[in-house]
Amino acid sequence: MTVDDESSLLQHPVELWRYDLPEKTEAWRFLELINKKYGTYIKTYQELYQWSIDNIPEFWGEVWDFTHIVASAPYASVVDATAPMFPRPQFFAGTKLSYAQNLLFPVPNVDPESTAVISATEFTKENVTWKELRDRVRKLSIAMREFGVMPGDRVAGYVSNNVSTLVSLLATSAVGAIWSSTSSEIGSVSVVERLSQIEPVLMFADKSSLYNQKVFDNLPKVSEIVAELPTLKALIVNETSSLQKIDLDTVKPINGVAMLLDKFVEGVRADACLEFEMLDFDHPLFIVYSSGTTGRPKCIVHGQGGSLIQHKKEHSIHMDMKAGDVFFQYTTCSWMMWQWLISGLASGATLVLYDGSPFQPYGERSMFQLIEELGYAIQTPLRRNNIINCDSVKYFGTSAKYLSLLEQKDFRPKDLYSLSKLAMITSTGSVLSPSTFSYVYKAFGPILLASVTGGTDILSLFGAPSFLVPVYKGEVQCRGLGMAVEVWDQNGKKIETDEPGDLVCVAAFPCMPVMFWNDKEDAKYRASYFERFEGIWHHGDFVRMSPKTGGLVMLGRSDGVLKPAGVRFGSSEIYNVLTKEYPSMVEDALCVGMKLPNDSDEVVVLFLKLQPSVLFTEDMVKQIKLTIRTHLSPRHVPSIIEETPEIPYTANGKKTETIIKSIISKSKVTVGASVANTQCLNWYKDWAARH
């Protein structure tokens, strides 16, 4: 085995970075507060984490105070620590609050004339101050109330990541309605599959969207969507471009009206005040969706208070985010990272909302060129020796796939830009390989590389970053405070070693979904999280935990675990080897198990999408098998390695391993509309028919 193999790294962790001023962080200030108030002698993150899960009610109560949650009524109790995880226990009973108020009026106060949001595309930028943002939310929330939108009503968005979408969400929260968005690149069938379940009364839609330097007209798809939503009373169109005149009759809902956003708000009086509905902690705020790759997506409902306090904990205590810090997360409005980004306003951060390709218009330089230009927007950068002093963005969030693509090109931003303000890069969406960890430190220099893990189900993180612990190669730094995460084996026993197992959470936390929409007696809710291990949250990730560092090593999804001859391992172990050893040969890969109906054992199949101009040969197959055997073990070696023209992904950029596993195993499979490139599935069906 080599130094980059998971087992070797767990035995001999490789430290890549350590913060030299941990005592200057918000996390340390929180640690000292706990020591002073409770008479503890906590000195490390691990000790603070243990205290947080041993004292769940006290911990979340302290987070409430420390992060300055604003409420109109105090809570009677935090949570019953003796209550089971399912049915979901109530947190912060008795309080009344507004998510929108906490985001628009963060504590400590921000300068109303300072920048709250920078909205950027491949071609344009828009700066919005806190004062302007508040006024736009004021106008829209009043217009929504006057139109008849009530607390609990569902408001949908078919939108891009821009200021108007942010305003729509905050106005929805201000009136107490429930927000559910899908990105405008998603097809109409997939959108209807989601929105028809929640029956929205109002829908916002962007007239057009931009990607890869092309403008796409969204209205034909919008017309198809509204035709399937009889509950819609109004469609509000954001005129994102003026290239074509809008014929509103073509997008008019069956039982409602269609109008432009400017027209919808034009009658609002200038002296009408911004008001917030004060509602329960668990009042529904977001409806998000399961992947829907193998059937109809489940509608996951998140409460306003749980999302708010969890995000504030992660941003303030874990990430050290403060008022004025600039937070840039590359995301779409269909990915839970969008909600995670938006909540940064509650810490007083300046948000960067970007809509477009991360590789336009300057190839791999594009995002860092944008960051440089944002420096001009926020403060004047200096030029020294042809290096740009990019003193703006402090947090840059992206996907593991994006960083892997930069690694393949060996692109070094630090050679072109002075990233003096950049303190953290967050990576999520898929497993970040050890070689990409090493690449980031070569390409960016000494920063906190935060490989994080969580998901749509909790709208936040189980595995989080921290300035109090080092970054180790291939590891998620730590388990999030207050999140009682363990690794269990197939028999429901806690694993104390570095052996792989399932990620579970054994104590309730406030950002658990409040319910699934239209889920009688919580049957889907229970089946999704509490059926695998009775009464224990089973998240569906296959992981290892390092006894030496306390970090997590992500191995893939539990339903994608490979089990040849009964030995379990994750697909990421194979992907990591390919990323490190064959970046110029292999563009992408998919590794799944195949077990035909009459077979007693599963075999591992590896599909390779090769780089342009690379030819697939038997010598290549032998070489890759030998490399996997050498780096991992004989049991990891795929029985079959084949070339494929394309790897299937969801719209959120996740490989659809379970679908391909079912197809090639000739099992019954229902493909949902959320697979982004469904046309490529035919190739796998043809392959399965031949084997």
From TrEMBL:
UniProt keyword annotation of Transport present: no
UniProt keywords, alphabetically: ATP-binding, Ligase, Nucleotide-binding
Pfam families cross-referenced by the UniProt entry: ACAS_N, AMP-binding
Acetyl-coenzyme A synthetase N-terminal domain ranges (all copies): 45-102
Keyword Iron: no
UniProt GO MF annotations: acetoacetate-CoA ligase activity; ATP binding
Domain AMP-dependent synthetase/ligase: 111-504
Gene Ontology BP annotations: lipid metabolic process
InterPro entries named in the record: Acac_CoA_synth (IPR005914), ACAS_N (IPR032387), AMP-bd_C_sf (IPR045851), AMP-binding_CS (IPR020845), AMP-dep_synth/lig_dom (IPR000873), ANL_N_sf (IPR042099)
Homology family: Belongs to the ATP-dependent AMP-binding enzyme family.
Coiled coil: none
The name this protein goes by in its record: Acetoacetyl-CoA synthetase
Gene3D superfamilies membership: 3.30.300.30, N-terminal domain of ligase-like (3.40.50.12780)
